[in-house]
């Protein structure tokens, strides 16, 4: 009977240790996932800022092209 009680106690301790390790691993995984999400958000923000800058530059260039076209007299074909 004592052996059975000791076996049950040892099993309970083993499960408790396993549960603590599993809990620790889950916490570490959650921390890493949080860091990954934060990094992805920073990358997205940087990419969005670059896209806005590029769009603004392209819009300015197009506006300058339109201004140049308006300022240049059209050539009329010779008759």
Write structural notes for this entry.
It is built from 1 helix and no strands. With 79 residues, the protein is mainly α.
At a glance:
This protein has 79 residues and is mainly α.
Q: Which terms would index this structure?
A:
single chain; 79 residues; mainly alpha; 1 helix; rod-shaped
Average pLDDT reading: 83
DSSP summary: helix tally: 1
- Rg over CA atoms, rounded to whole Å, is 34 Å
Q: What is the helix/strand order? A: H
For the record, give the distance between the C-alpha atoms at the N and C termini, rounded to a whole number: 119 Å
What is the 3D shape?
rod-shaped
Residue windows where pLDDT falls under 50 for at least 5 positions: none
Count of beta strands:
0
Counting helices, strands and paired strands, the structural category is: mainly alpha
Helix content: over 70%
**Main β-sheet description:** none
Measured by DSSP, the beta-strand proportion falls in: under 5%
Helix and strand layout, with pairings?
Elements: H1 2-71
């Amino acid at each position: 009977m004592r052996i059975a009680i000791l076996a049950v106690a040892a099993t309970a301790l083993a499960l408790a240790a396993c549960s603590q390790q599993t809990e620790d691993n889950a916490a570490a995984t959650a921390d890493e996932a949080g860091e990954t999400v934060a990094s992805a958000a920073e990358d997205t923000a940087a990419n969005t800022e670059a896209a806005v800058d590029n769009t603004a530059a392209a819009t300015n260039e197009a506006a300058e092209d339109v201004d140049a076209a308006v300022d240049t007299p059209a050539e009329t074909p010779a008759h």
